């Protein structure tokens, strides 16, 4: 049994270090910051073409980033690159101005800037109907 354990773990780590595609929905690494004026998200997506490989969308209060790193056929050799779909969803602050979100891509970093409305403009008073 003990002789089997290193072989099992070795096979598993070999699979992790192989050039097999990513599992569906692999998570994108990101960092974010929040000020009174904006919510800024920076996502690490090196080696991608923002016109073909990256999509940024907003649905309600959720900003989604979808990307795909395509597998390039190799003749022989070793590759530690990971390929496949990557995605990440982030809940936006309540006062996010979803109509004016801007995104840019430079040197492998996708940056999304979400402007924030002032506290007064973020919500609205709901009238209460009487009986």
TrEMBL record:
InterPro entries: A-crystallin/Hsp20_dom, HSP20-like_chaperone, Small_HSP
Stored CDD domains: ACD_sHsps-like
Domain named SHSP: residues: 21-131
Any Pfam family matching the protein: HSP20
The family this protein is said to belong to: Belongs to the small heat shock protein (HSP20) family.
Protein's name in the database: SHSP domain-containing protein
Organism: Catellatospora coxensis
